[in-house]
Amino acid sequence: xxxxELFRTLLEAVITGQMGLFAxxxxxxxxxxxVRLALAxxxxxxxxVSVINAVTSIGLAxxxxxxxxxxxxxxxxxxxxxxxxxxxxxxxxxxxSLGHLFPLIVGPILLVFRYIAPIDSIVIAIHSGYxxxxxxxxxxxxxxxxxxxxxxxxxxxAGFFLVxxxxxVTISIESSFGRDFRMSGSYVAILTAMLALSAAIITTxxxxxxxxxxxxxxxxxxxxxxxxxxxxxxxxxxxRLLHEEKLFRNPxxxxxxxxxxxxxxxxxxxxxxxDKRGVTVPTLINLMRIESVASELRDNTSRERTITxxxxxxxxxxxSAFQREFQRRFGMSPSEYRELHSKSGSPDSSVK
Length: 352
Known about the structure:
Layout: H1 3-28, H2 34-57, H3 65-88, H4 102-112, H5 119-140, H6 148-176, H7 185-207, H8 228-244, H9 255-262, H10 266-277, H11 281-298, H12 307-314, H13 319-330, H14 334-344
Helix pairs in contact: 1-2, 1-7, 2-3, 3-4, 3-5, 3-6, 5-6, 6-7, 8-10, 11-12
C-alpha cells in the first residue's frame, strides 16, 4: 500500500469512527428528545455512507450500493428537518414533513429504471435542492439563534452536507472518465474537509452539553421583548426563590409556577435564564437540586441519612434521572462522591 493509499484509508477510518462514536454517545446519554435522536440518526448515516463507499469502491459487497443510495438520499431531508426542529420546534413528523420521503421513493425507481436518467445526476440535483433550502433556512433565520454556539453548530452541519455534495460530484466526474475516484487528490481533499468539519461538530456539541438540552434551548423567544432592566429584576427574584426559599425542592415545580411567583411572563423568564445563565429553566432547577444533594453528601453530620432521602428532599422524583444527572455533573456516583469526601474529611470541599 502506497503512502497516499495509507493516508486516504486512515482518513476514511477516522471519519467513520468519529461519527460512529458520536452516535453511540448521543444514544447512551438516555436523552430521547426528537432533536437528539435526529442528530444521532445523522451521525449514524454519515458513518455508514463513509464505510459503504470505501468498501464498494474496491469491489467488495457491491450489493450494499442500493442501500448506500437510500442513505445518501436520506441525508438532505434529515439535515433540513434537523435545522427546522432546532430552530422552530415543530413536531418532528407532520403531514408536511412526510413530503420529504419523496427522495426515498425516487431512489428505488432510479435503480429499477437506470436508463431513464443517470443516477448520479439525479442524486446531485436532489442534494443541491436540499442544500439551497438548508442554506436559506440557516441564513434567513440567523437572528433567531440566540446563542452563537447553536448557529455555529447548524452551520457546520450545512457545511458538512455541502462537502458531501461535492463528494458526489467528484465521484460522478471521475467515473465519467473511467477513473477510480479514491485515487484522486480531490477525494483526499474532500476527506480532509469532512474530517475537520466532523471534528468541529463533535467538539462544539461536547463543549456545550446543554446546546441541545431542549429543541428550543438557545433560540430567541418570538415576541419576547424584555428589557435588560426587566431581565435583571427577573433574575434577582429567581435567585431569591431558589437560593433563599429553596423552591427547587418542590418536585412538581414548573416554568409556569416559577413565572407566577416571580410575577413575570413565562417567555420572559425563559429568555432571561437562557440569555444570562446559558441554560434552560428546567436545567437550572436540576443543577440547583444536584448541588443541594452534593452539599448534603459532603456534610459528615448527614451520614445517617440515606442518599434516596437526600435526593427526594432536594426535589428529584426519579432515582434514575437523579443518578444520571449526578454522574454527568461530578463524573461519579452519589455513593462514590460521599465516600470520597468522607475520607477527605473536608465537608466544604467540592468537585468542580
